[in-house]
Amino acid sequence: MIGEDARRFLQGTTKSVWALELLLLMRRCADRSWSAEELIQETRSSDLVVREGLGNLKQAGLLVEETPGLFRYQPAAPMLDDWVAEIEMAYAQKPSVVIREIFSAPDSKVQIFADAFRLRGKE
To answer: What was the pLDDT predicted at 35?
Structure first.
């Protein structure tokens, strides 16, 4: 349903269903700039989720900050928009599959913490 590149992209950029909803809303309204406050109200999400989502999406090359505090969906490369379109289509058809992909993403912070307690064999 979701190609490997789009799946890895989803897992690398989207940490929650709220973040996915934020991304898809901004894509649907790509001609509009949003403040964090407007996005909080529109998505009925928390300040933390929206601000973290905006930071992750901007870092992933999906958003531009047109003026301080105003963000607009504008992928840095056409391939990024293709992946988001693929994810959006899959989410519309089978949301549970996309949600499962989000939650199956390896969390590097958790992995680092777990690795710190891993017993080492004799060297």
So the answer is: 95
